[in-house]
Amino acid sequence: MRKLILLSIILMFSSYKIHAQKPAKPTSSNIYEAIQKLNFLGSVLYIAAHPDDENTALIAYMANHEKARTAYLSLTRGDGGQNLIGPEIRELLGVMRTQELLAARRVDGGEQLFTRANDFGYSKHPDETLEIWDKNQVLSDVVLAIRKFKPDVIINRFDHRTPGTTHGHHTSSAMLSVEAFDLAGNASAFSNLNNIVSPWQPKRLFYNTSWWRYGSREAFDKVDKSNMLALDVGVYYPHKGLSNNEIAAISRSQHLCQGFGRLSSRGSSKDYIEFLKGEPLQGSNSIFEGIDTSWNRIKGGEAIGAILYEVENNFNFSNPSMHLPQLVQAYKLLQNIEDKHWKNLKTKALKDIIQMCAGLYLEASADTHWATPNGLVTINLEVLNRSNTPITLVSIKKDNAVSISKDIQLKNNIAYTFKEVLKINENREPTTPYWLTENGTLGMYKVNDKNLIGLPETPRVYNVDFNLLIENTPITITKPVIQRYAKPDKGELYRPFEIIPEASVKIPEKVIIFNTSNQKEIPVVVKAGTNNIDGYLELNHPEGWSVYPKKQNVSIQNKDEEQTLVFTVIPPENQHEGYISPALHLNNKTFSKELIEINYDHIPNQTVLLPSESKVVRLDIKKRGENIAYIEGSGDVVPESLQQIGYHVRILKSNEITTETLSNFDAVIVGIRAYNTLEDLKFKQETLFNFVENGGNMIVQYNTSHRLKTDHIAPYNLELSRDRVTDENAEVKFLEPNHDILNTPNKITAKDFEGWTQERGLYFPNKWDKAFTPILSMHDKKESAKKGSLLVAKHGKGYYMYTGLSFFREFPEGVSGAYRLFANMLSLGKDNLENNSKLND
Ligand SMILES: [Zn+2]
């Protein structure tokens, strides 16, 4: 039910401007507000680093109260975080969060921009961030965004003067914004952008400060605010029936994969912006002071304004179509404006308003949501004029082909529907996010087409132009081809129309661990994008590995049907790793990409094509202990990973933790953040510690230091801190080189700490009882040695271990050393014969 309410609210706000697949059904109030925005010629650019950094209250305020054209420039797409609602991580998470930002902007009325910077994970300092990002490229992208969007005012979310106090990406976003503010207007800076954009100098730069910058509300109360503007972001909009802060909460709640579903609030609420640079305010309370935000701003605008202000002032809510003669008159005048920036922006807005005032419904719906090059698709067209204004559908044009003449007089409220066949160009590239088509670096996406840089998503390639005559004036309205369909349990739905390859391939398992030299059967799935595909499939493999059979025939009759083929993969004798990748050969073409769909209710469906490959790891690993109980925290794939190397793992719920149950296990592992998320685990601590006393091993993975549900996390005193080592290549020193945990059954060496991903670990303890032995020492650049990453305490006959090492990140990436060290942790003290008999080799 909650989802339904949310969805209907989103629908109300669905902007007709962005690629919302569902067409907006605007009310008179929506039209009136669009006219108010049309008559405001000022703009604001908000800059930060990640999806969720943006202050949606301020963006909503600028877009709806000030009526300014407002955009959020998020330097990254948030690829580095965790996904609370599905399996997508890394670049797929970036695709998802891009769409969540677009969904947020559809609610708050803003637009969305990006740079090529990749969210590579947590960074402590902007120095590190700007080393991993290509600083000059990101700066160039910020300059490009400013020159394209041409904001009057820029507002930074973060403070550029306080490096090291927040995520390095945050401070970097502010530092780059300050630098770009100085450069954007200088034609000789980034002159390579001159063929796309011309220089633009914004008038002012602000920092969106807050009490938390000063530690407390009391401290902020005492701060001199003469350099700040206070904005009441709690204003109420009667036309919407919503307060600005309510809109902000709905917008913020689009960040569902980050768990940002939020309560809304109402009532007056202050937001502060601090003046940083540009032309100082002369005491007025407007960020646009000294900027003409009326139609007089542009040459030839006065006459247009005279018409459009008249429409705004006398707007007819019961019959908006009566304004069409004036709107079309303004449209004609607008076509003579020299200033291309304003002409394009306002033409687009005015066309939308004309369409809304006429109640004009135009739709191009394909009979399928995807097709392949050379494919034929039937497009259902719907054209409907719901006004008495004479409108003629002169012709339609699809895919930039020749216009098809129609010459239909659209009578009031008579729907015209017809079908057209669209042939997909044989050279058409499949639909996929433009920033994922080339291999980038850790810090940067690679985009070869300069015109795409900064765009939130890949532009739709299939559109239909409706060439109309409205009030005897030719006006073309373009609609993307979509698919409209219905589901019995969901009602009417829309999804994007996409181009897919004739076939796609995938190996379901992304990391395959061979802990012995035994062969494994690896399934490969081929999916047909079109009917009747015939060819053969091969599986490429690293040297030293063998695959049988060499080739297998593939034959699929129906589009969307799948065929699974199984290959036998034989690993080498010794430790080794590499990648296997399928290649499907059809009619002299090779298909090696996986087609990934991202389907959620709150964002349009996404199709991503990525090279299909799986990591294969021949692990040289010995292990003792067999049966493991796993207590899940906030979710990780550690249990599946341990199963891959031959452990028997059973998930235990808190209420199943009893002495009797535990007696079946050699070890208990506590999942990440379990002491942050499980309310009742604290009542089971004594049972767990008794299990250790009786000879069991207990391994606790990282918990955050705040919001711990118990102080009694270990049998001995242990204090968590925020210490973390974010450099995944940081040198690891062995404090206890002779300890069993580094020697049996696997001899751990520096090599085992190679190839780690994203970080070494996080939330290491920084104080512990002398019962604990610290095993490893490591640190980030310019920091002191951190010794709390792996602590071991003998407790009775067993061992209690606490580790902030990121095993949960390393296992799914197939990092051998992480597996070998973890096997030693599980094996600690397990040297009895019974278990030895179960050794692998
Ligand atoms: Zn952030």
TrEMBL record:
It comes from the Bacteria. Keywords: Signal. Gene3D superfamilies: LmbE-like. The keyword Transit peptide does not apply. GO terms for molecular function: hydrolase activity, acting on carbon-nitrogen (but not peptide) bonds, in linear amides. Pfam families: PIG-L (PF02585). Residues 1-20 form the signal peptide. Coiled coil: none annotated. This is PIG-L family deacetylase. The lineage of its organism: Bacteria, Pseudomonadati, Bacteroidota, Flavobacteriia, Flavobacteriales.
